[in-house]
Every structure is written in structure tokens, then in C-alpha cells.
Predict the 3D structure of the following.
Amino acid sequence: MYCPFCRHADSRVIDSRTSDDGSAIRRRRQCPQCQKRFTTIETASLMVTKRSGVTEPFSRDKIISGVRKACQGRPVTDADLALLAQQVEETLRATGAASIEAQDIGLAILDPLRNLDHVAYMRFASVYQAWDSLDDFQAAIEDLNS
């Protein structure tokens, strides 16, 4: 870690703490050369592998925008969507994998969305799981009712 003041190539960690949601580590550092202190925030990157094979960084905003479409006209707030996206990210990070398939993200969205709003769940699942018959809808409704 380069010192931001004198560009010395090394620094010493004085204190480490996790962030409020546990997704990052805040480290207080000191440069052995100029003795100045600075803070770094470290996060583990989570990459998404799309169906096309392209990889990109994980984004909560993409989850929110995708689920927002399913929640259109439903009594779901932005805070609800932010919480859902956080739950999904925590679920994905708990796997310990550095790269996640886009399909796995969709599956991770289904359970929290089902608990949030049944109609939004049906909308999202019908598109995500490519339901093509009334039997698919009926099976999902029966599952929701049980």
C-alpha cells in the first residue's frame, strides 16, 4: 500500500474494523517514512458471469432496477428494494465464491421477493423462469398458498 503523502511503498496497519454491514474492512495505516496516517477501505470484489460469458462487477443497482419492474404498481418502497438487494448480496457473498453466475443471482432474488410481495414474485418468476403455460402459473400459485 503506497503512502498517499510521500508515495513510500509500505505502510503499517494500526487498527482494523469491519464496516456497519460487514461488507468492508476499514484499516487505519501509518507510513514508516513520513509518519502520517491514512485510512483505507477494503472490499472483496464479486464478479458476475453472464450467459454470454462476459463478466462484470456485481451491482445492487441492477438488482433493484430489475426487481422494480416486477414491483411496478405494487406497494413496495425504495427502502424495501434496497433491503432486498442487500439480502441478495449477503446471500451471494456467503457462498464464498469470487464469481457468480447470473442465473444464481436470479435464484437468490426469488425467496426474498416472495416474502416481500407475492404478485411481484409471480411477475419476476414468470419472466425469469420462462414460464410458458398456465400449468406453470398454477403450480407457483399452489406453492404460494401452501
About this structure: The two ends are 55 Å apart (CA to CA). The longest strand covers residues 12-18. The CA atoms of residues 88 and 94 lie 10 Å apart. The mean pLDDT is 91.
